[in-house]
Amino acid sequence: MPRTAEGKPRRVLRMPQQARSRRTREKILSAAVACFEELGYDATTTAAIARRARIAVGSLYGYFKDKRAILLELFGKTANDIASTVIRDLDPAAWRSADPRVGVRTLINTLFHTRTFNPGMQRIIWERYFKDPEFREAVQATEHRIRSAMVELFAVLKTQGRLRVKDVPTAAFVVYTSVEWTASRLMLGTAGAEIDPAVDAASDMVSRFLFHDVRR
To answer: What predicted TM-score, i.e. pTM, was given to this entire model?
Structure first.
């Protein structure tokens, strides 16, 4: 048993099992991100993830049944970060006395820049969206959260007489879908445009669509 300088037994502090478990889980998730981004989802194996995490494959299976379960958890974390960030910019209180065009630009800037949250992971999730119904449902659940917040904001702006459009749910669908598709193209690297100019152009387009005082 370890002893102090005075020769007394030294108490050894042990890491609680729960803390060890959380650290191992985080090591697995971090290793999976690295493997998915480096090798791609299809070529990544649980053995490769375990090697990267420096744990036994059997230990990995104590936390996740397969790589799909790991990817779903990673998506859940990323999607929650994205939705929470965007919904903060949709708080009606923040729009009450502000220029709505400034609010639109802030919102679209946020939507576009959330694509920098684990971009490699987002590309993989985009691919899985078309192949796996569970991923599709998870993506749609995130979309529903954001669009619901957008509908709430637009309804408030409409009661204030600031909104030009009449059908609020459809307006929210059109705005979200057009901005989301543009942001996804930027993230996938196929848009042929830079983020900041795209933010300016999309902000102008959405403001003209939504509000009375910016149509020319």
So the answer is: 0.77
